[in-house]
Amino acid sequence: MRFPLYIATRYFFTRSKQNVINIINYIALSVVLIAAAALLIVLSAFTGLKDFGLSLSNVFDPDFRVETVQGKAFEVDTLSMSKVKKIEGIIEISGIIEDKVFLNYRDKNHVAYLKGVDPSYLTVIEKDSLLNSGRWFSEEFDEVVIGGGVAQILSLGVYDYNDFLVLTVPKRSSSNAQLKDPFINKSALVSGIYSVSEEVDKKYIFSSISYARKLFQRKENTFSSLELKVDPNFNKVDLEKQLKAILSTELQIRSRSELNAALFKMLNTEQMAIYLIFTLVIVIALFNVVGAITMMILEKRPQLKVLYAMGVLPKEIQSIFFYLGGMISWVGGGIGVLLGSALVLIQGYSPFLFVPGTNFPYPVRLEFQNVGIVLVLIFVLGGIASAWASARVGKQIKLY
Q: What span, in angstroms and rounded, lies between the C-alpha atoms of 204 and 162?
């Protein structure tokens, strides 16, 4: 195999006497280079967008959420809660009371979910990246933190002492008094406004868990869910086993990816579609390699007859053009990967592309997996194209 590789290397680096052949070879190499660079850049850009999109949910959603299978709430006594906190790998645990509320402010109405949280919640999520104005609510007062979407709908700002936000829920008791006054109304001062995403900002407001318990008429040690912050290497299966051993209630445990199953499915589907589209682009680009090899076979016909007369086997002659096609594909693809990686790194550390109409740099992230995918794709498809082109040697030249 050394002889065919040597001849192929000479053909690759030596300029042809016919200028048109050189142009065809340069075009074939350039097209593969551009296609490989484009695929890596697009995959890196999509990875950056994916990370940016998930970062919004990472602010709001915990590592794991424990919920009851039946009903809206479940009880966890103090002893059981203490045992859960001692489970190895759990960094923090926060009890949540959550339900739907009717909001009223200066004759403007909106329906949202009130999420009553305890002080540990600030460890489970990143509070500093959640708020964009005001401050987090105080445990001592009837205060709430609302989303930017709710604030816009109700035309509500922080610390408005002239008019308080009124929260209304139906009474849970079935007494005769409920027939006369079926709702509970509680006022609250807006202490802060958060911003995560348009959907979340219109859906959730936050308060202390004690405030939520009074509003929803829930008993002490009653929770809608438990939200956990765990060690990155924590195992969900082990967590389920230990929680089932401690808590008698039938519960379900969902990770962050399961809480955002639709988002993850959409992102994975889009990534696969992009990968398949650019794979087709590379396949089309490699047709240029097939054309370049075919032209080289026609040009080198006299030399091939001499090689055959000297005892070089037809398979070895085919190997010459297989290696030549591989060099065009692999060298072009390798340079394309280097060029694409350089552009992605420059955009990451010194942005030159910005989202239209903003000063926000377009998010990208160079991932080893994406580099590997492009290299493997170029290697495999380039090999197939080279094998197909070199197999035509017998048809293009009479060796016998």
A: 23
With a threshold of 0.85, does the pTM exceed it?
no
CA 245 to chain centre: 34
DSSP type of residue 191: E
In a 3-state reduction of DSSP, which class is residue 154?
helix
In terms of Cα–Cα distance, which of 337, 314, 333, 283 is closest to 391? 314
**64, pLDDT greater than 70:** yes
The CA-atom distances, in angstroms, between 28 and each of 162, 246, 290, 321 are: 73, 65, 9, 15
For residue 8, the tally of other CB atoms under 10 A from its CB is: 22
Q: Is 47 exposed, middle or buried, given 0-12, 13-18 or 19+ CB atoms closer than 10 A?
A: buried
Q: 3-class secondary structure for 10-59? A: HHHHCCCCCHHHHHHHHHHHHHHHHHHHHHHHHHHHHHHHHHHHHHHHHH
DSSP β-ladder status, 108-117 and 204-208: parallel
2 three-class SS: helix
* Token pair in block for residue 257: 């990816």
> Residue 285 is inside which H or E element, if any?
helix 261-299
* Cα–Cα distance measured from residue 119 to residue 383, given in angstroms and rounded to the nearest whole number: 60
Closest CA to 8 of 396, 398, 386: 386
The token pair at 369 is 């997996």
Question: Residue 161: which residues within 8 A CB-CB, separation 6 or more?
Answer: 189
Are 114 and 167 a contacting pair, CB within 8 Å?
Answer: yes
Over residues 345-377, the pLDDT tens digits come to 998 888 888 877 777 788 888 888 889 988 988
Q: Is the dihedral of CA 124, 128, 134, 135 positive or negative?
A: positive
Task: Provide DSSP, 267-278.
Answer: HHHHHHHHHHHH
